[in-house]
Every structure is written in C-alpha cells, then in structure tokens.
Amino acid sequence: MNSASYLNKAAAKLLTIALSVEPVARSRHAAGLVFRRTLLVTGTNKKKTHPLALEFARNKDATTLHAEVDCLVRWVSRYGVTTLPDCELVVVRVSAKGEPTNSCPCKGCSRALRSFKVGGVYYTEGSSGLLRKL
Ligand SMILES: [Zn+2]
After folding, report:
1. pLDDT tier at 2 (50, 70, 90 boundaries)?
2. CATH hierarchy code of domain 5-133
3. 110 C-alpha to center of ligand 1: Å?
4. How far is the CA of 31 from the centre of ligand 1 (A)?
5. How many A from CA of 1 to the centre of ligand 1?
6. How far is the CA of 113 from the centre of ligand 1 (A)?
C-alpha cells in the first residue's frame, strides 16, 4: 500500500532531520506529527530521559528518549492531547551510511502511541524509505 504524498513529504523532511541527530546506540531517528496534512511537530531520539520515556520504556534499561515519545511530549505541551486522534505520526531512521532503514516503533513507543490515541502511525520499512502503516 502506498502512503499518501503528504506523508511521504513529511518523511523526506524527517529524514533530513534524522541525518543531523547525534546517534544514540548507533541509531538516528526522527518522528513527526502530521495534522491536516501538515507536519507540525517533530522529535528526535536523545540520550537524556523523560518521565514519559520511563513510563513507556520497553524495559527497565531502555530509558533513553525515543523520537516518537519526544514528539508526543512536544505535541502535548503545545496542543494538548485532544487533537492526537486526528494526527498521523511518521517515524524514520537513518543507518550509519545515512540511508533510510527500518524504523518500526518498539513495544514501548507502540504502547505510548496507542495510549495517546494517535490516529495513524507510519514508519520507514527499508532502504527505499517507503512508509508502512503500523
Ligand atoms: Zn521506541
């Protein structure tokens, strides 16, 4: 299934952001929330943590802030939670070579995205950079 062009546009923007991220455990991720076809808020993975990162960590040792949760935190502080069901989240990852690679959200992030009722989730599946719906 091909994703809509506005989602691919958001992914292209996020890939340029991911390229500028300091790698955490060799990973460079960027996530964005799209509302009414417009990419409004972005987030990246970070070495620091956050109360939400702890709450939704996939295990007790995985406490760094993932791009998806960083993006959720930024969205909620700006717009609150009521608009999240009308949003789509796009998450991308770039490899050490700088190419798109699989960015399927981890269990912890999937749980956070469900719990915040985000309307749809898309991630890069391979080096093509094509998006797949979670
Ligand atoms: Zn995650």
Report:
1. low
2. 3.40.140.10
3. 7
4. 11
5. 24
6. 10
Reported in sequence order, the residue ranges of 23-128 that DSSP labels E, i.e. its strands, are 28-35, 38-44, 87-94, 100-101, 120-124
Residue 63 confidence (pLDDT): 75
Q: What is the pLDDT of residues 103-114, one digit of tens each?
A: 999 999 999 999
Rounded Cα–Cα distance for residues 132 and 124 (Å): 6
Ligand 1 centroid distance, CA of 70 (Å): 10
Q: What is the pLDDT of residues 20-31, one digit of tens each?
A: 988 887 889 999
Indicate left, alpha or beta for 26 from its phi (over 0: left) and psi (-120 to 50: alpha): left
Q: Which amino acid appears at position 84 of this protein?
A: L
Q: So where are the chain's domains?
A: 5-133
